[in-house]
Design a protein that fits this description.
249 residues, alpha/beta, 7-stranded parallel sheet, 3-stranded antiparallel sheet, globular, binds 2-amino-2-deoxy-6-O-phosphono-alpha-D-glucopyranose, glucosamine-6-phosphate deaminase activity
């Protein structure tokens, strides 16, 4: 595990975008795993800026998003379909058929999960997966207690997670109770993982990830078992953490 420490959210975002762009330049057919939430928004802005300035092309890149709420129309402003279009896809030259997000409106959601997993496999897996960190340690929507062996599946969202995401919705009542998420095993099969962590509200979770035991009650801890993880963290998220010497700087 490698840790890149940066001053603040802006620097975290620039650093993450630089790493992603470097991967695309080396490998134009990159299979890129994408995340939503507040954390990667500025990274997407930096990627859009780079696309404008340096013409980095997404023509041959394929993307797979981590998750989507069940029951939200893709045009609903809180769906991750809408988020990805309005924060990223609308501003780069990626062909729509190369972007993949679970269909939260599928009639047969179990089949949708199987198909999603199969599509990732058909692309020979994810080359670089971008991840955020839930304050309860969730990755994607894999909540505490999820088996490390899970493939893409349907989850019941915990109240903690619904509350954490309620800020995007008009009221708590309309925050979906279920979602489709890549499983922990799906994420762990990615060849490389880039975890972004910013802000004091993530500092406890980050400390537990860096120091804690590998334990399904804290899903992100599984990342300690992956050989190609880079964490980019700002000072606020690292406060009160003495970085263990086992973490490569
Ligand atoms: N499903 C998403 C995750 O993919 C995201 O990484 C995490 C952190 O969100 P944020 O970046 O807004 O703190 O929680 C959300 O619930």
């Amino acid at each position: 595990m490698k840790l890149i420490t940066v001053k603040n959210y802006t620097d975290m975002s620039k650093t993450a975008a630089d790493i992603i762009v470097e991967h695309i330049h080396k490998h134009p057919q990159l299979v890129l795993g994408l995340a939503t939430g507040s954390t990667p928004i500025e990274t997407y802005k930096c990627l859009i800026e780079d696309h404008k300035q340096n013409q980095t092309s997404y023509q041959e890149v394929s993307t797979f998003n981590l998750d989507e709420y069940i029951g939200l129309d893709p045009l609903n402003q809180n769906s991750y379909h809408y988020y990805m279009k309005s924060n990223f896809f609308n501003y780069i030259n990626i062909p729509e058929q190369k972007t993949h997000i679970p269909n939260g409106e599928a009639i047969d959601v179990e089949k949708e999960c199987e198909d999603y997993e199969q599509q990732i496999a058909n692309h020979d897996g994810i080359d670089l997966q971008l991840l955020g960190l839930g304050s309860n340690g969730h990755i994607g929507f894999n909540e505490p207690g999820t088996s490390f062996k899970t493939a893409t599946h349907v989850v019941n969202l915990t109240n903690d997670t619904r509350q954490a995401n309620a800020r995007f919705f008009d009221n708590m009542e309309i925050v979906p109770k279920k979602a489709i998420t890549m499983g922990i095993d799906t994420i762990m099969k990615s060849k490389e993982i880039l975890l972004l962590v910013s802000g004091e509200n993530k500092s406890k979770a980050l400390a537990r990830l860096l120091h804690g035991q590998i334990d399904p009650t804290f899903p992100a801890s599984v990342l300690n078992q992956h050989s190609q993880v880079t964490i980019i963290s700002d000072y606020d998220a690292l406060q009160n953490t003495v970085v263990p010497s086992s973490i490569l700087l």
